[in-house]
Design brief:
alpha/beta; 17 strands; 2 domains; 389 residues; binds alpha-L-sorbopyranose; Rossmann fold; binds 1,4-dihydronicotinamide adenine dinucleotide; Dihydrodipicolinate Reductase, domain 2; 10 helices
Length: 389
């Protein structure tokens, strides 16, 4: 019988919705899970948003002061889905109150802040989880299985990218994602970190980087309301302009601890790209490739195939693949973003109850911010930079 855990959710934007859908579906998808979430209380910045979120997302209660969640003895886990600049304060307060904490990526604005959050959570002895949800898709978990089984042999190289085009329009107003003091960094922390997470998950730690970043539009219209226009048709900008002080595009050469070479690229100006999170891994016995826009497929090429039949084959995810029991009886019926987010939150909640390890956790959040920091340093120095302490 699953233990009920009361969730306190802070933030009710894009990810507030995604996490609420996950909490609603976990009991149905995973009847045998150790924990089942209860949507207990939600907080946003004012009464209107918070009340609307409770009604829309199915929470019992709401408040416009996130500290109420921390001080509520009935709350078992705090889930932080606010803009990056408030993650640190909220996560440390929750940890110090002995709550288990899940935080969206990035863990904090930079590597120093992220380390502080990681250490506060470690000291408090709580369970932590990170919002690197894409890696929880069936295809990613299956890719890891193939690699761990040696199906692609000795790994020679990783190439990955995260391309979309939501920022390409100069009329898109400034929002927190364009401001260093609110976002920490630009596309490198906001998007490229998802590919870094996949790379670390599949191939282990990244040791050093050589990077180049660019701000493609140096100013944008000041917003006339406090909203994030992410991906929508531009509206709500004034004729006054404000500076963009973070990167819009990046290219990074990486070397893993294993010595494997990799190359990463990310841009939010890649016209025509939606959510193109792509990687390819080449090895001595085969290759794997993946594209999130077709996230129910994993492409696999094996040198064991007959010479004349060699090339990529498309494997469609289904009941035979990781977490298959939770979904549909036939391959190709398909799962997506909501299901990957549900698996990520389910794994975290289960660990709260059964005491197991969470993967990814705040240490991963901190280590990834170290890689971001090294890439930003490399952009300044023009040299390779080591990532970790
Ligand atoms: P958003 O701007 O759509 O929503 C943020 C919400 O937080 C807003 O409703 C805002 O009013 C609220 N908020 C801000 N300050 C607050 C405070 N002090 N107390 C309570 N509520 C507060 O942002 P979005 O897109 O949901 O991003 C949130 C976080 O999730 C970010 O850290 C972002 O990087 C991450 N994210 C992760 C994704 C993933 O796939 N893992 C996808 C999108 C965002
Ligand atoms: C914007 O680039 C964004 O919402 C990111 O913040 C998310 O992490 C990404 O997965 C979707 O795009």
């Amino acid at each position: 019988m699953a233990k009920k855990l009361n969730v306190g959710l802070i933030g009710s934007g894009f990810m507030g919705k995604a996490h609420s859908i996950a909490y609603a579906t976990i009991p149905t998808l995973f009847p045998d899970a150790a924990a089942h979430p209860h949507r207990y209380i939600v907080a946003d910045v004012n009464d209107e948003l918070s009340k609307e979120a409770a009604a829309h997302f199915g929470f019992d209660k709401w408040t416009s002061n996130w500290k109420d969640l921390i001080n509520d003895d009935s709350v078992d886990v705090i889930d932080i889905v606010t803009p990056n600049f408030v993650h640190k304060e909220m996560a440390i307060a929750a940890a110090e109150a002995g709550k288990h904490v899940f935080c969206e990526k990035p863990l904090a604005l930079n590597k120093q802040e992220s380390k502080e959050v990681y250490e506060a959570a470690k000291k408090a002895g709580i369970k932590t989880g990170m919002g690197f949800n894409y890696r929880k898709s069936q295809a990613l978990a299956f890719a890891k299985k193939l690699i761990d089984q040696g199906k692609i042999g000795t790994v020679y190289g990783f190439r990955g990218m995260y391309l979309n085009d939501w920022a390409k329009d100069p009329e898109t107003p400034l929002s927190w994602r364009f401001e260093k003091n609110k976002a920490g960094s630009g596309v490198i922390g906001d998007q490229c970190t998802h590919v870094m997470d996949m790379a670390r998950y599949l191939l282990g730690e990244i040791d050093r980087v050589s990077a180049w970043t660019k701000t493609l539009l140096k100013e944008r219209p000041k917003p006339t309301a406090a909203f994030d226009d992410l991906g929508k048709k531009p509206s709500g900008g004034s004729s006054d302009m404000a500076p963009v002080d973070v990167d819009d595009a990046c290219g990074i050469l990486v070397e893993f601890n294993s010595g494997v070479m990799g190359v990463l690229e990310s841009s939010r100006f890649a016209t025509g790209r939606g959510n193109h999170i792509f990687f390819e891994i080449n090895g001595s016995k085969g290759s794997i490739r993946f594209d999130w826009e077709r996230n129910n497929e994993l492409w696999y090429a094996s040198n064991d195939d007959e010479f004349e039949e060699r090339g990529y084959r498309r494997i469609i995810m289904g009941p035979a693949h990781p977490n298959g029991d939770a979904f549909w009886p036939i391959a190709g019926i398909n799962t997506g973003y909501a299901e990957a987010t549900a698996i990520n939150l389910k794994d975290f909640l289960d660990a709260v109850v059964d005491g197991g390890d969470v993967d990814p956790n705040f240490e991963d959040g901190w280590r990834i911010e170290e890689i971001v920091d090294a890439a930003l340093r490399s952009n300044e120095s023009g040299k390779w930079e080591k990532c970790h302490e």
